[in-house]
Design brief:
This protein is mainly β. The chain has helices at 2-21, 158-161; strands spanning 50-54, 60-61, 65-67, 69-72, 78-82, 102-104, 109-118, 128-135, 144-150, 163-168, 174-175, 180-182, 188-190, 196-197, 202-206, 217-218, 229-234, 240-246, 255-258, 283-286, 291-293. Strands 16-15-10-9-19-21 form a six-stranded mixed sheet, with no helix packed on it. The longest helix has 20 residues, at 2-21.
């Protein structure tokens, strides 16, 4: 009888241990209630993982929209981009059912972006980031014009004395960061740092730090010929802001442009009288050492 009771006790203990050791194969949750126990094959249990998050077209935008790229482990069913490191709520209405390829920033400034994913069971992954992005107020066609060019200095070598001048025709302050200047050949340079120009303000860009004055910006890998050349300013998104061509130069004399006659440069002039192209950038062909009357079509005030 004692041996029989001992056998029953052993069988009871074995059965109990077997029950606690087993897990529910359908849910992946063991009877002890650990939701992380199991193979993780079910999307409703395993948190999705984002393996890569980047901005393939660069982190600078003048439109507010940046191109994004997200790579995940294919368990995600919804995605979200945030400007906060805090994980979004699973019940948020901001989740997207399609993996996004762009993100829009609402106001000017620098931001850290984070990518998130959740699965069909509402489990939110740990997220990926930060990836930096910057939204700047870049110019549109005609907002910035090229007003003076020194292509052929005589006191200094070309490598030290070449420069050109630009003018903000608008009532806004623009940041030229990311804008590109190129000539008629293969020379070009990109504004690599913040370079703001205020309304009705002139700024100079020079080939050296000592062109005879203090320039607002020093450029490299860009030179101007003494015969036929041009300067073109292009925005971040490829829009031509302004283009100026010249057909010759006189040594030591800059080529100058002048705004419309009613915008003669008195110290008290109003920004509202500055003329500018109404649709597209102006293309102008000028002669050296001559004050050119700059006529836009139409000349507006």
């Amino acid at each position: 009888m004692f041996e029989f009771r001992k056998l029953k006790l052993i069988l009871l203990l074995s059965t109990t241990l077997f029950i606690f050791a087993c897990r529910d194969e359908e849910t992946g949750i063991d009877p002890a209630g650990d939701p992380d126990y199991g193979s993780g094959d079910d999307n409703s249990v395993s948190a999705p993982v984002i393996t890569d998050f980047s901005l393939p077209d660069g982190n600078l935008t003048d439109s507010g929209t940046v191109t994004i790229s997200i790579t995940d482990d294919d368990t995600a069913t919804a995605w979200m981009i945030t400007e906060s490191e805090n994980a979004p709520e699973a019940a948020s209405s901001d989740w997207l059912s399609t993996k996004p390829s762009t993100h829009t920033i609402s106001s000017f400034g620098a931001y850290n972006l984070y990518a998130w994913a959740k699965n069909s069971g509402g489990t939110v992954g740990s997220g990926k980031g930060p990836v930096s992005a910057e939204y700047i107020n870049g110019p549109e066609a005609g907002n910035i014009i090229i007003t003076e060019i020194m292509a052929n200095p005589n006191i200094l070598d070309d490598s030290e004395g070449e420069w050109f001048e630009i003018f903000n025709t608008s009532g806004e302050t623009f940041n030229l960061k990311g804008c590109i200047f190129n000539d008629a050949g293969t020379d070009s340079f990109t504004i690599s740092a913040d370079f703001e120009i205020s309304p009705a303000y002139f700024a100079t860009l020079a080939r050296s730090a000592e062109p005879g004055f203090t320039a607002d910006y020093i450029f490299q890998n860009f030179s101007l010929t003494n015969s036929v050349d041009e300067i073109t300013l292009t925005s971040l998104n490829g829009v031509v802001i302004d283009t100026v061509s010249y057909t010759g130069s006189t040594e030591g004399v800059s080529t100058k442009l002048q705004l419309c006659r009613k915008a003669v440069f008195y110290s008290s002039y109003s920004i509202s009288t500055i003329s500018r192209p109404s649709v597209s950038a102006a293309t102008r062909i000028v002669s050296p050492s001559v004050q050119i009357l700059l006529l836009f079509s139409p000349c507006i005030s």
